């Protein structure tokens, strides 16, 4: 079917020249509307000289349940300022093989569905959908204002199985994900400080993190004014693994002759790791019975509560007395796991004390890490880490 005068608002500046229904979809041929003036795709200047003409095949939104293919007759213009270049089209990006309308549709659904589902819904190739989404993410990130962080939060999350991690850096004030990189070593996080630059590094006043020496050393090297703040959650989690679990196993091994008592100790792990206020009421008697029957577990449980109090607001001198008291009690005890943990914790005292001046933690980044895991599960994993990091940064642009 041919119609030289059919002009529709879907494709501004073009008229339908031919319409054909084939086995693979609907094919529509478009030609420039009579009298339309071509504009330069670089400067949008109207150009009267035409250098040449060519056809481009483009995918459009699905209509009446069938794929739509556009064969567009395009012009190359001779611009006085830019030279020879393609004409500007409002509904089609330069060199694009899909219309802007379809690209926007793909970008919208990629925020909610895995790429494979979007491919099935639109009939586009996986690489085409991924390229469209990547361009959208790059545009979103480029539109964000330049970050001027003062406080940072650093943490890692599992990228793949096999102890492969990625590091996330968050602006603690705006909650914007500033940077994501693979690895958690000094070399892995150094590109972030190089991206931040010398001037912005000097503005950093505090950085919250776990007891990761790589993070600590890089912050000290690049941010001379920054104070490192160690997160309570990570320290207590480390205490649970290295002290409570080790003492519990040792005590269970000593009760081989008393199987009922041994089972209580072995099964009491989660009761010992929970905070007292989080223990269910029906489990309170079991916890009290367990602590009353085992002096070593009682000691580790009390020492954990005392350790947590070091993060409570107080003066520097009060903290110093509490810190020395905790170290002394740990050293004077008979529990080797507790003594070993205290020796390892001692060099990090400045990062614990900094909590009094900078009440920061990595909790907000832990919540973001949980959402990152959901994104990864929805997509059944990402083969391209760089693209995954773009999605993370676009998903957390910060507070308006």
Automatic annotation (TrEMBL):
What is the superkingdom listed in this entry's lineage? Bacteria
InterPro entries, A to Z: Transpos_ISL3, Transposase_DDE, Transposase_HTH, Transposase_Znf
What sequence ranges are listed for the domain Transposase IS204/IS1001/IS1096/IS1165 zinc-finger? 39-82
Q: Where is the Transposase IS204/IS1001/IS1096/IS1165 helix-turn-helix domain?
A: 87-132
Q: Where does the Transposase IS204/IS1001/IS1096/IS1165 DDE domain start and stop, copy by copy? A: 152-392
> PANTHER family per the record?
TRANSPOSASE FOR INSERTION SEQUENCE ELEMENT IS1557 (PTHR33498:SF1)
Tell me the protein's name.
ISL3 family transposase
Q: Which organism is this entry from?
A: Rugamonas apoptosis
Lineage, highest ranks first: Bacteria, Pseudomonadati, Pseudomonadota, Betaproteobacteria, Burkholderiales
């Amino acid at each position: 079917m041919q119609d030289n005068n059919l002009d529709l608002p879907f494709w501004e500046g073009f008229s339908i020249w031919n319409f054909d229904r084939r086995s693979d979809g609907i094919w529509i041929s478009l030609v420039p509307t009579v009298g339309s003036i071509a504009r330069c795709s670089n400067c949008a200047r109207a150009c009267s000289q035409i250098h040449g003409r060519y056809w481009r095949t483009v995918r459009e939104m699905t209509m009446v349940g069938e794929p739509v293919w556009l064969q567009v007759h395009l012009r190359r213009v001779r611009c006085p300022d830019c030279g020879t270049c393609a004409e500007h089209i409002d509904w089609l990006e330069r060199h694009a093989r899909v219309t802007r309308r379809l690209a926007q549709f793909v970008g919208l659904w990629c925020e909610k569905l895995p790429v494979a589902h979007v491919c099935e819904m639109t009939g586009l190739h996986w690489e085409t959908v991924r390229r469209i989404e990547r361009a959208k993410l790059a545009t979103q990130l480029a539109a964000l204002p330049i970050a001027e962080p003062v406080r940072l939060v650093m943490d890692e999350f599992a990228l793949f199985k096999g102890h492969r991690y990625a590091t996330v850096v968050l602006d603690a004030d705006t909650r914007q994900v500033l940077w994501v990189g693979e690895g958690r070593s000094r070399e892995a996080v150094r590109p972030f400080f190089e991206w931040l630059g010398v001037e912005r590094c000097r503005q950093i006043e505090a950085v919250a993190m776990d007891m990761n020496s790589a993070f600590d050393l890089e912050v000290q090297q690049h941010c001379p004014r920054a104070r490192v703040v160690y997160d309570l959650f990570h320290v207590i989690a480390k205490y649970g693994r290295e002290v409570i679990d080790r003492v519990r196993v040792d005590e269970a091994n000593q009760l081989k002759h008393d199987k009922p008592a041994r089972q209580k100790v072995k099964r009491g792990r989660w009761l010992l790791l929970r905070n007292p206020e989080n223990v269910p009421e029906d489990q309170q008697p079991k916890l009290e019975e367990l602590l009353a029957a085992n002096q070593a577990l009682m000691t580790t449980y009390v020492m954990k509560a005392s350790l947590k109090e070091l993060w409570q607001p107080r003066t520097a001198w009060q903290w110093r007395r509490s810190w020395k008291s905790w170290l002394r009690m740990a050293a004077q005890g008979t529990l080797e796991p507790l003594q070993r943990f205290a020796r390892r914790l001692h060099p990090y005292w400045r990062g614990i004390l900094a909590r009094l001046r900078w009440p920061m933690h990595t909790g907000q980044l832990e919540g973001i890490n949980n959402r990152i895991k959901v994104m990864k599960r929805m997509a059944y994993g990402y083969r391209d880490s760089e693209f995954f990091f773009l999605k993370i940064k676009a998903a957390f642009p910060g507070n308006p």
